[in-house]
Amino acid sequence: MRFSSLILLAAAAGSAVAAPLKSHAKRASPFQWFGTNESGAEFGETVLPGVWGTQYIFPDTSKIQTLIDKGMNIFRVQFKMERLAQSSMTGSLDAAYLKNLTTVVNYITNAGAYAVLDPHNYGRYNGAIMTSTSDFQTFWQNVASKFASNNHVIFDTILREEDNEYHDMDQTLVLNLNQAAINGIRAAGATSQYIFVEGNSWTGAWTWASINDNMKALTDPQNKIVYQMHQYLDSDGSGTSATCVSSTIGAERVSSATAWLKANGKKGILGEFAGGVNDQCKTAVTGMLKALAADSEVWLGAMWWAAGPWWGDYIFSMEPESGTAYTGMLATLEPYL
Ligand SMILES: *[C@@H]1O[C@H](CO)[C@@H](O)[C@H](O)[C@H]1NC(C)=O
Ligand SMILES: CC(=O)N[C@H]1CO[C@H](CO)[C@@H](O)[C@@H]1O
After folding, report:
1. Could you tell me the distance, in angstroms and rounded to a whole number, from the CA of residue 93 to the centre of ligand 1?
2. Residue 167: is its pLDDT beyond 90?
3. Residue 66: pLDDT above 50?
4. From 1.10.10.10, 3.40.50.150, 3.20.20.80, 3.40.50.300, which CATH number describes the 33-336 domain?
5. Of all atoms in ligand 2, which is nearest to the CA of residue 232?
6. Active-site choice (165, 198, 319, 321)
7. How far is CA 85 from CA 13, 33, 48, 316, 322, in A?
8. Which of 62, 261, 314, 319 is the most buried (most CB within 10 A)?
9. Residue from 100, 107, 310 whose mutation best tests the ligand 1 pocket (most atoms within 8 A of CB)
10. In the annotation, is 165 catalytic?
11. Could you report the per-residue pLDDT of 234-251, keeping only the tens digit for each?
């Protein structure tokens, strides 16, 4: 699709040197989507709701524009449920926080890119594990109703930490919470949008097939579910170290998830990935993206962790113009932008 529009554009331009192509048209990525997470609005979670500029901040749209100019076309925007729905999960949405979130979302979608709404809550609300599917359904219905007419918004349901107790029950709860979110979103009249579903145990790609197999039972009347998995390349897969296990670890860690997507006829996206700015990680990251691209009929794209205004010298910061990964890793990602 993008290749053919590029050819058409080039043909229309008549000569290769005639007109500079717009950044969107330039994308020759094997993926439908490639972009980054945008952190800030979920920061300072020990103080809720907290104060803008003290505990949390919203992404800087001018920096997002820089990344769009580089070829990124999807941004996963983190926020906290307790800041949006302050009185309870089913409570009305806070107008001021929603306004700031909407400003970022609309900026992204007006630029033709996709904005992923990510309640960065680890399956918890006010510290307690969510158990009420109906409350969660109402939360999503309330959120989706605000974005129902924007088809470049993507709803990102829920991610769970590993929960060692009552593991089997918990896994069923993850399935049911995800289904409730889908039902709430569609009930809000948001019918054109993709929904990214997440699993248990940090939604890891490397453990997806063994832990989250039951998620294949999710249903969507619009048939626009995308299974979102995360993958870091350090020894425990937590994304806390700049050292990658080996130069081949990226491809190795996604292979069982690829097999699962194919076997079940599902689509996936790598919603978070990162590696340190060093040769071993660059090779490992490239190996992983090559593996995903080789199966781009099931893998729709990938999103770096993370950009955002408050990362400082964080090892994975993709924030223009001085973030560690922006200066040191972006060139490695360029073939996929
Ligand atoms: C929204 O952003 C503005 C700055 O643009 C800030 O003054 C305000 O406090 C923010 N409100 C919330 C609730 O985040
Ligand atoms: C590296 C890092 O901090 N990654 C975090 C990103 O957000 C997910 C939740 O979506 C966390 O599980 C990761 O730890």
Report:
1. 15
2. no
3. yes
4. 3.20.20.80
5. 1
6. 165
7. 50, 29, 11, 30, 34
8. 319
9. 100
10. yes
11. 999 999 999 999 999 999
